[in-house]
Design goal:
Blueprint: H1 10-14, E1 23-37, E2 43-51, E3 54-61, H2 67-73, E4 78-84, E5 87-88, E6 91-92, E7 95-101, H3 104-107, H4 112-116, H5 124-136, H6 141-160, H7 174-189, H8 198-207, H9 212-215, E8 216-217, E9 223-224, H10 226-230, H11 232-247, H12 252-264, H13 280-304
Antiparallel strand pairs: 1-2, 1-4, 2-3, 4-7, 5-6, 8-9
Helix pairs in contact: 5-6, 5-7, 6-8, 6-11, 7-8, 7-13, 8-12, 8-13, 11-12, 12-13
């Protein structure tokens, strides 16, 4: 392949639907690398590669020159790939040729990491200031102190963490963005539902996903930590809230109700909930969580849609593609 192949972003590659076979180069993060075995017994990788503008999946068989390189590099590595544009069932699925690991000494060059790491579209500092204002607005003294105690312990990790590996808000500051969006929605909806204790519900929203700050790790590619695999974010968040609540002497009734919000916020046991929501506040938080998770997927798909795209790729959380063309 000629050395003059243009270096493109994922978004630029996805826009080349009418240029199959075009040679390209790209610098990408290995976000996911899963070893599999074909029906004929030959090994292959199912990989997700991406940068700040998006990601795509591809298959690399053992006879591909890049197979051993990716095997040695592993998830989280930065690689320069060269290949040819190709699409399968309307999705970018390039044919890879040369794969070279980008050494750490080159990652410090201006703009390299910034171009690789997807971040929340809203300013992270503004989100963090708004988040802290929501804490300050909790009128119940011990609930406010409980919330503060949790973020005194995990604040910086929470601030930078993604909200998921792949499903929703799966990028740096995504967890902060998701939580602030939920708090905004709650503030608007709470006046409609007087049966819901506002302070307890807002505390539950701010704390519901705190376990994800411990569940996920990785700078360029997100993966689950040892604690994340063995316990999961629901249990980890419950532990954080219980520890903080006991420390500030939150009354037993509110502490139990707060713990229940965290344990039930996933909605269904099949989705990771420890129990079904059984208090007004738990039902409220679970519904807002589901709303923002799904609309977060919608927002990201719309941001990444090409100018000529009518539908997004299939979004697992929505069980299908999304119509991305705006209303005429």
């Amino acid at each position: 392949m000629p050395e003059t192949s243009p270096t493109l972003t994922v978004a630029e590659l996805k826009a080349l639907e009418n240029a199959p076979g075009r040679a390209f180069a790209a610098v990408l993060v290995v976000k996911k690398l899963v070893g599999k075995t074909a029906s004929n017994g030959n090994p292959f990788f199912s990989a997700d590669l991406g940068d700040r503008t998006g990601s795509f999946g591809c298959t690399i068989f053992s006879d591909n020159a890049g197979f051993d390189t990716l095997k040695a590099a592993g998830e989280g590595a930065v690689v320069r790939i060269e290949g040819k544009v190709d699409f399968y069932q309307g999705r970018l699925s390039p044919k890879l040729g040369r794969v070279v690991v980008v050494p750490e000494t080159e990652l410090g060059a201006p703009g390299v990491l910034e171009n690789l790491v997807e971040v929340a579209p809203e300013d992270a500092n503004a989100l963090w200031a708004e988040f802290n204002a929501f804490i300050d607005a909790i009128s119940h003294t011990e609930l406010r102190a409980t919330t503060r105690a949790v973020f005194d312990e995990i604040g910086e990790a929470f601030r930078r963490a993604p909200a998921a590996v792949a499903m929703h808000h799966a990028y740096r500051y995504g967890l902060l963005e998701h939580t602030v969006h939920m708090a905004r929605a709650a503030k608007a909806l709470l006046p409609l539902y007087r049966e819901v204790d506002a302070d307890l519900a807002m505390t539950g929203i701010l704390l519901h996903d705190t376990g994800k700050a411990l569940e996920y790790e990785g700078t360029l590619a997100t993966k689950r930590s040892r604690r994340g695999i063995l316990q999961g974010h629901v249990v980890l968040g419950y532990q954080l809230a219980r520890k903080a609540g006991i420390k500030v002497r939150l009354d037993n009734d509110r502490l139990e109700r707060l713990e229940h919000i965290i344990l039930s916020h996933q909605g269904e046991p099949a989705w990771g909930a420890a129990v079904y929501a059984a208090t007004p506040e738990a039902v409220f938080v679970s519904m807002i969580d589901n709303l923002d998770a799904k609309l977060g997927m919608v927002q990201r798909a719309l941001r990444q849609a090409g100018a000529v795209d009518e539908f997004s790729e299939r979004l697992p959380g929505l069980n299908g593609p999304l119509l991305t063309r705006p209303v005429a």
